[in-house]
Design goal:
heterodimer; A: two-stranded antiparallel sheet; B: alpha+beta; 2 domains; 5-stranded antiparallel beta sheet; 13 strands; globular; binds zinc ion
Chain lengths: ~90, ~210
């Protein structure tokens, strides 16, 4: 069982949450090129190591939050801050 | 707010508790275990209040996420950040809700008929919950008054541990030596209510859980 540290609810079973994937900074829609949009929408870094990612606490507080996980060990770090903005690669 | 006395107070519960899930092999029910009950309390009035931080309403409610308190016959439960469920008899909830300040970003929605609610009570109640929910139901983690939201038998539920509240009145504390059994309100969407009621009865069968 993967215990995900929700900033509101504390450690919760990952099955209580939805994984929303890698968190990348959204480019400015007024100035982004088509290539930048494509990269933002479809391209993943998928590293074996630290990754900044978004989770949704579906069964608990129903909040989105960002945290960092080592994809190789499933270790979490940097207790997430409620309401933190998405911010690119870890 | 609609005056509750001006409407026909008909409530139809989504739960039929007569066909209990306790059919089948009964395993050693002692007198104590028989006190483990699951009651349909869907008819209690449930009003959901959302209020932005730093509104007057938030200060009036005065309950943090994950906690609850009893005031004027209603239980205010901090269900989610900036979100409270007020539970009680219709008149009590109506009186309470009418006093809530509406200034700022505040909303009130009556969930009485959209949410079912059942009450699981008994010394083994936490052991029943442990079978169908992944949270820690020990009294250290979820003491009386604790509020959590979690999946119960795969249904999204809001749970309030509420050992003393009985339809608007606190249990008499005249018998200090008597152990007050843990009691949990479990609220879910109306359409899942019958399934959840039967699923909890099924999980509690080994502890002698009976519909109240
Ligand atoms: Zn949460």
């Amino acid at each position: 069982m993967l215990l995900v540290p929700c900033p509101h609810c504390g450690p919760r079973n990952a099955s209580d949450l939805s994984y929303k994937g890698e968190s990348h900074a959204r480019p400015d829609p007024n100035s982004a090129t088509a290539e930048e949009w494509r990269s933002y929408l479809y391209m993943e870094d998928n590293p074996a190591g630290w990754l900044r990612e978004t989770w949704y606490c579906r069964s608990g507080c129903r909040r989105f939050f960002v945290l960092e996980r080592d994809t190789a060990t499933n270790e979490f770090r940097n207790p997430p801050v409620p309401g933190a903005k998405l911010g690119g690669k870890a | 707010m609609v005056d509750p006395n001006s409407v026909n107070p008909v409530f139809e519960s989504p739960i039929t508790s007569t066909n209990s899930g306790s059919a089948g092999t009964s395993i050693g029910t002692s007198a104590d275990q028989a006190a483990l009950t699951l009651a349909d309390e869907s008819s209690l009035t449930k009003t959901l209040i959302r209020a932005e931080p730093r509104t007057k309403a938030e200060r009036q409610l005065d309950v943090v996420f994950g906690a609850s308190r009893l005031v004027d016959g209603v239980v205010i439960s901090g269900q989610r950040p900036s979100e409270w469920l007020v539970i009680g008899e219709a008149n009590d909830v109506s009186t309470f809700v009418d006093r809530i300040d509406r200034e700022g970003h505040v909303s009130l929605v009556d969930h009485t008929h959209s949410r079912a609610m059942m009450r699981l009570t008994g010394l083994d109640a936490s052991r029943v919950l442990e079978k169908v929910c992944s949270l820690d139901w020990s009294s250290e983690m979820t003491p009386n008054g604790a509020v959590v939201s979690a999946s119960v038998a795969k249904v999204g539920c809001d749970i309030v541990r509420n050992d003393t509240f009985r339809h608007g009145s606190a249990l008499a504390s005249s018998a200090p030596t008597e152990v007050i059994p843990p009691s949990y309100w479990i609220a879910c969407d109306r359409s899942f209510a019958q399934y959840l009621f039967d699923a909890i009865l099924d999980a509690g069968q080994e502890f002698g859980l009976l519909p109240a």
